[in-house]
Design a protein that fits this description.
The protein has 8 helices and 5 strands. With 171 residues, the chain is an alpha/beta fold.
Length: 171
């Protein structure tokens, strides 16, 4: 995935003529979003341990700005090297391209996205059951499954005939 940042491998890759072979670097996660929203990743653990004041401090604009700035300082060189040694950097969404450009400090024509594939359909499905399915890694601090449970408790008071299924593994 990030082989082009490794001195040993990138030296070998860049000094060999592969013809039409391209070096693609895949970034599967957000580059800055987890830093921008760090407070919300920690919200559950902070609030459940009675540390609401720390959450309030972490979610302030100045703290968020400082954390993003420090992250850019720490990792910008890494991502610029990745860009330099890759023919393309493939990201999972258009939003991630914007984040990567922010991390790089400039726009790059090497950034491409491959979003989740969805086939639009004109057909209408007849409702069969009143079910909502949430699928994913069950992690309170990242995926915030606690929020869907809180929201669902309000929804099911008005819609008793609906069911919620949470599927996945995690902590």
């Amino acid at each position: 995935n990030h082989i082009s940042t490794n001195e040993l491998y990138s030296g070998i890759l860049l000094n060999y003529d592969y013809g039409s072979v391209k070096i693609l670097s895949m970034i599967h996660n957000c580059v800055l979003n987890h830093i921008k929203h760090f407070a919300y990743q920690k919200e559950y653990s902070l609030k459940s341990s009675g540390n609401n004041f720390i959450f309030a401090i972490l979610k302030s604009r100045i703290i968020s700005y400082l954390m993003v700035t420090l992250c850019k300082l720490k990792y910008r060189r890494y991502y610029r090297k990745l860009e330099k040694n890759s023919d393309y950097i493939v990201l999972v969404s258009e939003n991630n391209i914007v984040e990567m450009q922010e991390m790089l400090g400039h726009k790059s024509n090497k950034l491409v996205s491959v979003s989740n594939f969805i086939v639009p359909s004109d057909s209408v499905c007849e409702p069969k059951e009143k079910i909502v399915i949430w699928c994913g890694r069950i992690e309170t601090f990242l995926k915030r499954t606690d929020i869907i449970i809180d929201v669902w408790s309000a929804i099911c008071k008005k819609h008793h005939d609906w069911k919620l299924y949470i599927m996945g593994d995690g902590n």
